[in-house]
Specification:
This protein is α/β, with parallel strands linked by helices and 459 residues long. It contains 18 helices and nine strands. The N and C termini lie far apart (111 Å).
Length: 459
């Protein structure tokens, strides 16, 4: 075999194990390994705990095992839960406020949790139930939609505000004719029987319900307006009266703007007598007359009622006298609002005489009741003797010059009245100024007294 000459470099064959060949190969593999390390790292591999949390959150609807986890792991699972999960899964399982806050914020633009005891879960269930009831259509909506929700929300609902009740759909729509007069139209509509959702099925199963605010009407009806949409029927009233009577923890009951008349208020008042917890009753903006006021007068003396609002009804002096009789016997009523009625002087005098013996009432509103001098004369005695009243409103009446002077005389030694509204009461300007000075002095004395002897609330 011929060996190459020592000086013939062109014919020299490099050894695969030469130093130059090894350097070239090592550089190639080194660069390749560095590139792979940049795309693969142990940092990107989730921990087993994290994988378990993701799995639990993903399968929560089928297997809600939240209560079996440690607190720190519970929070991580809840943070991953969808707000669209069925309430049957989350209602009695998820108690974390952050989850219910997300549910509320995603559903409603305005969320003031302070109105719900600072509880987001309570807010969600109260507003969710209210929405269902507002759009419940009798004979159309499935009642199970409400009944199935009760076991889920009954532990959290303490107040319900329902500002509309929809009537049943009318199957036989009346034919519209161009020559149908308004009178004939109203008469025809009046014959249509319109009932609403029966609250007995709901209220009696809410053991913690303390406040109930109702308006029987329809919002945003637009061109579909009919008077029948605003009927609070006898059946509605009967069902509601039974429901309220059985709601033993109810403290506040408001039934406003619902065309409640004397017959209906008498039924409600009978069922509210001797109620163990009811403290506030608001029946403002209705159609209550004297017979209804008589029933409420009995209620005042046979209940623990503290606040009664009858603003904007149709009560005359006879109804006011009946209320005055109940006021004289009551030892709990602290606030009475009769603004925008027709009590006139006979009614105003009767209420004033009742206050000569009553020792519980603190606030009285008699604005816009066509009162004049005789009522002011009686209240002059009230201001001189009564040591409980702190606020009286006589605005928009006709007390006149003499009436104002009578009130000023009664206030001479009064130390308890801190508010006396005489706007548009036709009182002389100088008299009004002197009255204001006395009332302001009383208010300042009360303020300074509260600073010297602050009240401490029990823990």
């Amino acid at each position: 075999m011929q060996q190459p000459e020592a000086g013939d470099k062109s014919r020299a064959i490099p050894s695969p194990c030469s130093a130059q060949g090894n350097l070239t190969d090592d550089s190639f593999y080194t660069r390749r390994c560095i590139t792979e390390d940049l795309s693969w790292s142990l940092v990107t591999v989730p921990q087993l705990t994290e994988l378990c949390i993701q799995h639990i959150a993903h399968n929560f609807e089928k297997n809600p095992i939240l209560n079996n986890l440690l607190p720190e792991h519970q929070k991580k699972v809840v943070d991953r839960l969808s707000t669209s999960l069925p309430l049957t899964v989350t209602a009695n399982t998820v108690s974390h406020e952050e989850y219910w806050k997300r549910c509320c914020m995603e559903r409603w633009e305005v969320c003031d949790v302070s109105n719900y005891g600072d509880s987001w879960k309570r807010m969600f269930f109260e507003r969710h139930l209210e929405n269902i009831l507002k759009f419940f259509i009798p004979n159309t909506t499935d009642p199970q939609e409400v009944l199935q929700l009760i076991p889920l929300c009954k532990g959290y609902v303490r107040k319900l505000e329902i500002n509309q009740f929809l009537p049943p759909l009318r199957v036989d729509q009346k034919e519209e004719t161009s020559d149908l007069s308004d009178t004939e139209d109203d008469a025809e509509i009046g014959e249509v029987y319109m009932h609403h959702y029966d609250l007995r099925d709901l209220i009696t199963d809410l053991p913690h319900l303390e406040e109930l605010h109702l308006i029987y009407g329809v919002k945003s009806c637009g061109m579909n307006f009919e008077w029948s949409l605003f009927n609070f029927t006898e059946l509605d009233c009967s069902n509601l009266a039974t429901a309220v009577k059985m709601c033993r923890n109810l403290k506040v009951f408001k039934l406003t703007r619902s065309k409640v008349d004397d017959d209906k208020i008498k039924l409600l008042a009978r069922n509210l007598q001797h109620h163990p917890c009811l403290l506030e009753l608001d029946l403002s903006h209705n159609l209550i007359r004297d017979h209804g006021a008589q029933a409420l007068g009995k209620l005042i003396s046979h209940s623990r009622l503290e606040t009664l609002n009858l603003c904007n009804n149709q009560i005359s002096h006879l109804g006011a006298q009946a209320l005055a009789h109940g006021l004289a016997e009551s030892s709990t009523l602290t606030s009475l609002n009769l603004r925008l009625n027709f009590v006139e002087d006979k009614g105003g005098e009767a209420i004033g005489r009742a206050l000569l013996t009553n020792t519980s009432l603190k606030s009285l509103h008699l604005g816009s009741n066509n009162l004049s001098g005789p009522t002011a004369a009686v209240f002059s005695q009230v201001l001189a003797q009564n040591t409980t009243l702190t606020s009286i409103n006589f605005s928009c009446n006709h007390l006149g010059l003499d009436g104002g002077k009578k009130l000023l005389e009664g206030l001479a030694n009064n130390k308890t009245l801190t508010e006396l509204d005489l706007r548009h009461a036709e009182v002389e300007q100088e008299t009004d100024f002197l009255i204001h000075e006395i009332v302001w002095a009383n208010r300042e004395a009360v303020r300074l007294g509260s600073l010297q002897h602050p009240t401490t609330e029990p823990l």
